[in-house]
Amino acid sequence: MKWRISPNLNLEDIKKTKCLLLGAGTLGSYVARNLLGWGVNKVTFVDNGSVSFSNPVRQPLFNFKDCLGGGAKKALRAAEALKEIYPGVDSTGHVLSVPMAGHPVVDEDKAKAEFEVLKKLVEEHDAIFLLMDTRESRWLPTLLGKANGKIVLNAALGFDTFVVMRHGSLTTAGSKDGLGCYFCNDVVAPGNSTKAQTLDQQCTVTRPGIAAIASALLVELFVSIIQHPQGADAPATTSPDEDNIKSPHPLGIVPHQIRGYLSRFNNVIVTGKDYSCCSACSGRILDLYLQDGWDFVKRAMNEKSYIEEVSGLKEVQRLADAVAEGIGFSDSDDADDDELVEI
């Protein structure tokens, strides 16, 4: 592959990139297998779940025996499974709950300890993969990844849709090339999305093939970033046109987002700018985190409105409400005018 098809491919850069996978379920299993295929040597899993009887058919790192006795811990078993596939891989697992925005702290000592472990893991790795079930579980890793200047990649699934994306880098933030994160299009801060939901609503229900498709695209996007001369600062490709395909990049284009629609068997390349009021990656949020550390994270967990206030989202909501009220008054005035009869 390197010698004949793509002589400029730098396999050593791929091999030495240390990857942190947050989530060792369906997405985590497929991503890990694809990373192994590219020769990545360091893979670390973070997950707090256990293997259940419904998992092995969808999560290729597990088998039926892993479900027995209450189920093996996913992070630990996934790390072992990678070594069984290729003994030379440096694979470890951490049983850990990621602190989530909008989920109040119950045991502060435990939550703070988990935050410190996660923070250290992010600092020790080069690329962070967000492969969890809920939106709010991605908030803190997004913040930590941006604050530490890491490559952050994200995959999220619907029943027959998916989004695969890279987050904007710290060095291009606020510039014309600054790319958004998973939360940059939101007008509200992430909250507890599992509250008052039934068990089936809390679990991502998808067409079985969509996780494999999204995971493969995510890993290929990761490798394209590693191979690009600008790395994580690579500008987003807006369309796969002829000029981009002929670029000197050994693996072709490097998009910001790929949105897939399996019902139409169609993928769309999307580019989104970073948002100055983003609840996860904006300058205000980064500054507060760097200043207050755990105390800032704790407030974000306990008080949903706190993130909205300090990021500027609350002011955006107020302005939107004011505009809506103004339009309402204008419409009513027009209606009154229509009812007047000229004498």
TrEMBL record:
<comment type="similarity">
    <text>Belongs to the ATG7 family.</text>
</comment>
<keyword id="KW-0072">Autophagy</keyword>
<dbReference type="GO" id="GO:0015031">
    <property type="term" value="P:protein transport"/>
</dbReference>
<dbReference type="Pfam" id="PF00899">
    <property type="entry name" value="ThiF"/>
</dbReference>
<dbReference type="GO" id="GO:0032446">
    <property type="term" value="P:protein modification by small protein conjugation"/>
</dbReference>
<dbReference type="InterPro" id="IPR045886">
    <property type="entry name" value="ThiF/MoeB/HesA"/>
</dbReference>
<dbReference type="InterPro" id="IPR035985">
    <property type="entry name" value="Ubiquitin-activating_enz"/>
</dbReference>
<dbReference type="GO" id="GO:0000045">
    <property type="term" value="P:autophagosome assembly"/>
</dbReference>
<dbReference type="InterPro" id="IPR000594">
    <property type="entry name" value="ThiF_NAD_FAD-bd"/>
</dbReference>
<dbReference type="GO" id="GO:0019779">
    <property type="term" value="F:Atg8 activating enzyme activity"/>
</dbReference>
<dbReference type="GO" id="GO:0019778">
    <property type="term" value="F:Atg12 activating enzyme activity"/>
</dbReference>
<dbReference type="GO" id="GO:0006995">
    <property type="term" value="P:cellular response to nitrogen starvation"/>
</dbReference>
<dbReference type="GO" id="GO:0034727">
    <property type="term" value="P:piecemeal microautophagy of the nucleus"/>
</dbReference>
<dbReference type="GO" id="GO:0000407">
    <property type="term" value="C:phagophore assembly site"/>
</dbReference>
<protein>
    <recommendedName>
        <fullName>Ubiquitin-like modifier-activating enzyme ATG7</fullName>
    </recommendedName>
</protein>
<dbReference type="GO" id="GO:0000422">
    <property type="term" value="P:autophagy of mitochondrion"/>
</dbReference>
<feature type="domain" description="THIF-type NAD/FAD binding fold">
    <location>
        <begin position="7"/>
        <end position="232"/>
    </location>
</feature>
<keyword id="KW-0653">Protein transport</keyword>
<keyword id="KW-0813">Transport</keyword>
